[in-house]
């Protein structure tokens, strides 16, 4: 069963990388509904998170001092923002964090940017594959509500975000650690009782 899931996820990933996946309007609506139903965030918070990501990317891309020789990913979940990637200096790292922290509705910033050369396209492809494997394994893990968890992989490091219980956090971390290619797992969860 796991082998079939891996093959399916590989085909989907390859299709996405080539831009060949087309969703019918009804299918896209159903997928969006499923995500919202399984997400503990209110719809307005989901929208806020999307706006935070879009605005941050836009401002970073419009600032040559920040995007030159940099690879920066911005992920927002429940108004908490994760910054991952590579930048040329500590000054740029700090400047990106300040810019994102100043955006409306950002509650906190987890700055995981590394001062080092940008990763290669090969490494980014490996990271996409690791994320796919982690998500697939989480879906098939008995007792884990994977719809509450956002998975981000950067240079082999897996970051987990979401609103979960402590037991769900431990289970998700264990699943991610077992995936080949994962160097370390960083949990940035918000915890709930129940």
Subunit arrangement of the protein:
single chain
Main sheet strand line-up? 1-2-3
Order of helices and strands: HHHHEEHEHEEHE
Reported for the largest beta sheet, the result is:
3 strands, mixed
Count up the helices: 7
**Average pLDDT, all residues:** 86
Can you characterise this structure?
The chain is of the alpha/beta class. The protein has 2 domains: 73 residues, 2-Layer Sandwich (Histidine-containing Protein, Chain: A); 76 residues, 2-Layer Sandwich (Histidine-containing Protein, Chain: A), CATH 3.30.1340. The chain is built from 7 helices and 6 strands. The strands form 2 sheets. It has a 3-stranded mixed sheet with strand order 1-2-3. Helix 7 links the parallel strand 5 and strand 6. Helix 1 packs across helix 6. The longest helix is centred in the C-terminal third of the chain and has 20 residues. The protein is globular, with a radius of gyration of 17 Å.
């Amino acid at each position: 069963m796991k082998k079939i899931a891996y093959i399916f996820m590989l085909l989907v990933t390859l299709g996405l990388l080539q831009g060949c996946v087309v969703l019918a309007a009804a299918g896209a609506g159903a997928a969006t509904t499923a995500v919202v139903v399984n997400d503990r965030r209110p719809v307005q918070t989901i929208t806020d998170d999307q706006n935070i990501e879009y605005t941050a990317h836009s401002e970073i891309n419009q600032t040559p001092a920040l995007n030159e020789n940099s690879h920066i990913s911005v992920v927002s979940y429940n108004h908490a923002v994760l910054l991952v990637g590579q930048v040329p200096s500590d000054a740029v790292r700090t400047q990106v964090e300040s810019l994102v922290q100043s955006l409306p509705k950002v509650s906190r910033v987890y700055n995981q940017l590394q001062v080092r050369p940008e990763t290669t396209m090969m490494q980014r492809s490996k990271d996409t594959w690791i994320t796919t494997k982690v998500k697939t394994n989480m879906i098939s893990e008995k007792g884990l509500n994977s719809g509450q968890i956002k998975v981000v992989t950067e240079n082999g490091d897996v970051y987990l975000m979401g609103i979960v219980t402590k037991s769900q956090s431990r289970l998700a971390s264990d699943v991610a650690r077992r995936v080949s290619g994962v160097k370390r797992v960083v949990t940035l969860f918000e915890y709930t009782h129940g």
